[in-house]
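Example record

The entry below shows one chain as it appears in the dataset: sequence first, then structure tokens.
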Amino acid sequence: MTGQPSGLLRTLGERLKNSFDFLQKIGKSLMLPVSVLPVAGILLGIGGALLSGVERGALRIESPLLLLLFQTMKNSGEPIFAGLPLIFAIGVALGVANNDGVSALAAVIGYVVMLGTMGVVASYLGLEPKPVMGIPSIDTGVFGGIIIGLVAAGLFNRYFKIKLPSYLGFFAGKRFVPIVTAFAAIAIGAVLSLVWPPVQGLINVFSDFAWRHRAAHAPLRAASRLERPLLLPGWKFHHPRRRHRARRAHPLLRGGSNRRQNLGGGFLFKMFGLPAAAIAMWHCAKPENRIRTGSIMVSAALTSFLTGITEPIEFSFLFVAPILYGFHALLAGLAFPLLYLLGAKLGYTFSHGFIDYALFYAMDTRPWLVLVLGPLYAGIYYGVFRVLILKLDLKTPGREREEVSRADARAEVALGMARELVLAFGGRSNIKNLDACITRLRVGLNDVRKVNQDKLKALGAAGVVVVGNGMQAIFGTRSEGLKTDMEEFLKTAGPEAELTEAAQPAVEYEVKGISPKLRDPEAAQKARDLLAALGGAKNVRKVESCAETRLRLVVGDETAINEDALHAAGAQGIMRLPDRVLHVLVGLNADQYAAEMRGQMA
């Protein structure tokens, strides 16, 4: 009995560890889209804030060229934030699927399919869909993009080597992933259509409750909203257009109201708190990762300070360290009543950045309090973030754990068939490019003479065809999967991917005394026609070339052979021999046709 509680605790511990590892992987995958946000934030922040200042009379700009410049900056940054769900879907898919482009394509397909599905289901349920990327749908924000990205990556990792029946061989391997992702997106869209509207309604009710109550509830209000238009799509205030609609819907949100709370507290954590948190994460990164982490964190801190756009910082720790986000929510909430109780009133047009602070400084009440309390907030953020990261070993950017060492990955992959194929083609230095069609592994080579054709056949190739400076090994419908295996091996392999001198092929493959043959570009189709005339691939037991111009075949049922169809397929003569053996005269490319037929029979 005493072992049961400990076993249960061990199981729970393993599940928690797996959950944290999963969140860490998501957090790492978010760094790619997050790295785009600082530039977009600066463009949108500077352009949007200055234009808003002009509209509200806080700033006067008479130069048409300057107005055009600021409008261009604003309109250049806006589409990036408008397309964040799709950007995050692609980024998450690439991060979780080890940067394979097929997962990104699957994420794009999955996202648009999900949008279309939600639009249809929403209309059926009596809900009013809204345009999202031009598609009538339900707006799930970045949350929906992350879900689809995870699904696309999960399906890629599971099915990118899938094998299908030969008649579906074209759709095997990576080509299968976007297809299955589209079907999965239909199911996800239907489920979100049922689940998301009630959740969004609760968010709106809670946010409205918080907005309509006293300053004493400001921490609750800020924690419930926390300027998070990306995570709570129902309240997207810092986007200029939506903020304008929010002001029309809530007159109390208009600047200058003294009947309710003032929103100046945002300057404390956007100009000082979160930038200090970014610096803390930079300083806590592993030494070998500090340069990379610093470039991201410093640019994100500058974006937050100047424009008040905080997504680049918040998304860097939201998933990998939720405890930091909880602390951030608490301090952000306290910032509003703190300035309110001290009598400070600060206006803003965009999102609590330095540009807004400077624009309205002359019209604000006690704006200097921000400069007094800001460094204090920065010190608290920096200290708490640094202590929690180091004490709890939080995997913030630059502190990620390497799941598998490069040497271990090389050792594991080198044991597989991919290594043998690479060596059979002459090693990594002899391979220029890799490709595959339905039945062939196509390899561009530097030196065809280094290829060990006997080894390729021993590895399962039904035939090997030399085409110029390339070679085609016929592996049947396995070809796409083998190409993927070789690519994965070459990404991590070291010296073991090169041929040793002892392993160089010692066989001369050019048959002397025979003039080079002009290969038939229609060989694949002719082989298909020949097999059909012979009663199908299942009726052919064996096929090989002989006497340079003939196919020697062993069939299962001689009555299934259609000689007229054989002649139509290119057979110049047919000879029936005992024991169901057949000789078919096809010309000088008999070896090519035999190889193609074996590949289609595989």
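Notes for this example: Residues 218-261, 403-411, 506-516 have pLDDT under 50 and may be disordered. DSSP finds 21 helices and ten strands in the chain.
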